Amino acid sequence: MAKFKINEGNVENFFCCTTIFDRICEGVVDEHILGFVLSGELTLQTKEKKVNIRNGEAVFIRRNHLVTKLKQPAKNGQPFKGLFLRINVPFLKSISKQIVLPIHPLSDSLSNSLHFYLPQHPFLTGLFQSLDAYFTTGQLPSPTIIETKLKEAVLVLLELKPQLAGVLFDFEEPWKIDLREFMNRNYTCDLTLEQLAHYTGRSLSVFKRDFADTFEGETPARWIIRRRLEEAMILLKKGVPASSVYLKVGFKNLSHFSTAFKRQFGILPTQAKSIQNLYF
């Protein structure tokens, strides 16, 4: 039996998500997202903070970072329902030539923020209620309408929070960041090598070269497995069951985790707690 039910309709940069059970997912946000909750609650967790978005509220999620999303139905039994607009760089470049951008320098706190909570406001409500009508009737909007709505979304964001101009219209790609710090923070995440390279501001070839220099010749795949298993050992020794540990450290399959753990340490995960002095 499915643990959750999700329906999604997409017109490139516009999608709707509904679920009747709690649903948690983690993923890379590669373009700016404006999300609006029609029912239920959306919780976002990044490395910096956690924010809860409830019925009638919205959130702007900055591009180029990882975010964990928890979608929960309302307490009265209504399913979670959220509408999301994906605001990509090519579109922003095109409209930057059509509008006068406000000049509001970002504060340090805003410069470092990965998402921005937006309280209830008639401009946001009107925008997303008009979009919701397309899913309610089953008639998806044309690309022309979506483009118009995307422009409206940008103008609403600039009206409500003018400082976001510095985020929306920042087209620079990320600079190279500290590789060791990034990997130690994100080794449990489900990321490809290409994504790891991108989010550290490197090409794939430069990422592999820098990784070898930083981690004494170890390959990314081998290093990630080793770090996940070391963290798993710590959790198992604390009494956390293997059925929970394998997910916490980034494995998708308990059998694969058990095999890798035994290969690394010579014992099964269930034996780890009883061997207190095992060196690793």
- Low-pLDDT residue intervals, each spanning 5 or more residues: 1-10
| Mean pLDDT across every amino acid position | 87
The tally of structural domains comes to 2
- Strand numbers in spatial order across the main sheet: 1-2-9-4-7-10
The major β-sheet equals: 6 strands, antiparallel
Order of helix and strand elements from N to C terminus = EEEEEEEEEHHEHHHHHHHHH
**Proper CATH architecture of the largest domain:** Sandwich
Number of helices: 11
SSE class: alpha+beta
User: What is the fourth-level CATH superfamily of the largest domain?
Assistant: Regulatory protein AraC
What does the overall shape look like? globular
Q: Ends: how far apart? A: 40 Å
- What do we call the CATH topology of the largest domain? Jelly Rolls
Radius of gyration: 22 Å
CATH class membership of the largest domain: Mainly Beta
Please provide the count of β strands: 10
Give the DSSP E fraction (strand runs of 2 or more residues).
Answer: 15-25%
Structural commentary:
The structure is a single chain. The chain is an alpha+beta fold. Helix content is 40%, strand content 21%. The protein contains 11 helices and 10 strands. It has helices spanning 89-95, 108-112, 122-137, 143-160, 165-168, 179-186, 193-199, 204-214, 220-237, 242-248, 254-265; strands at residues 6-10, 14-19, 23-29, 32-39, 41-45, 50-54, 58-61, 65-72, 80-87, 115-118. A hairpin with a 4-residue loop joins strand 5 (41-45) and strand 6 (50-54). Helix 3 (122-137) packs antiparallel against helix 4 and helix 7 (193-199) packs across helix 8 (204-214). The protein is globular and about 60 Å long. The chain starts with 5 loop residues before the first strand and ends in a 15-residue tail after the last helix.
